[in-house]
Amino acid sequence: MQVPSFNIVEKLNSVNFGYFRRMEIVVSGIRSTGCLHLGNYFGAVQNFLKMQEDPAYHCYFFIADYHSLTTHPKPEDFKKNTRDVLIDYLGCGLDPEKAVVFAQSDVPEIPELYLILNMLAYKGELERVASFKDKVRKQEENVNAGLLTYPVLMAADILIHRAHKVPVGKDQVQHLEMARNFGNRFNHLYNAEVFPEPYPFNFTGAPITVPGLDGTGKMGKSDGNGIYLRDGADVIRKKVMKAVTDSGPTTPNSEMPDSIKNIFQLLTLVGDKATVDQYTEAYNNCTIRYGDLKKQLAEDIVRFTAPIKARIEDIIKDTDYQQKVLRMGADKARASASATLSEVRRVMGIQ
Ligand code: TRP
Fold first, then answer.
1. What is the DSSP pairing of strand 165-167 with strand 100-103?
2. Of 165, 221, 294, 309, which one is the catalytic site residue?
3. Is the pTM of this model over 0.70?
4. What CATH class does 233-310 carry?
């Protein structure tokens, strides 16, 4: 008589994927290099909130704290930075009962998959990544291998849960293409369908870039042009009033310069349509006063962020709750991650 074989991997997979069969897996994260700003909110978190409510999606939202190590944070800052992003996530409304909310450093299966994927990632393709070239320009004294293989770690974050959709801003689209490449290469090399192809996702259609207020490109934590969810009303007003403008339009219906477009784009995100229309008309007939436009934008941002900021202030005090959320998230994330990793090791002949 044959002993029935009990394959734990199959069991876990059938539990996971049996239950979530009709669901798509969603994974996304934000690096813990500071508190969240409006760019993070509109570029990423807003989509997280919608996706966690949608029964079609099983969501993993994490704090990418290993990714922050490229710039060598002090040990005493590492944990605080992780907590800051966690607190801001929860303040925005991420719900640990509806989505798996976890810290990357609590899931050791991720660095193991990263090691394996590194064997499938080529130096040439990594050197051509726009974010890498950008970092080389900005921090030439610290071009470490972690920076070069950043897209590989990001691919591991995504592939470890066999994600289908990744809600991210425009700047991450190239990284996702690499995640698809690494996953496909793995499937091909080991002749196994382990990884589905993950694609960027945004409810508004195309991925968006939220501009800064300094007339340059996107709002970024390291660019010093951010409005943070935790900023108080006065700080917000001060930052907005300093926004770069010009001397104003002199011919009707003229094209807006980037700095003005940026202000309108932010107003569109936080304000109502009638207000945006009113200022657009004023721009087009050359009666616009930028001082008024900025005041309007500042008040709309204050109104928009006030409830988030209030929740953040409550959660900051409740370290037990933070701990509980992280522990619960780590358990759920590890269950999914270890099922994938066992499958990976099995098809590679490691076990
Ligand atoms: N690279 C992303 C950023 O800078 C953060 C990130 C890391 C991420 N791993 C990820 C996003 C996995 C989505 C999925 O914003």
1. unpaired
2. 221
3. yes
4. mainly alpha
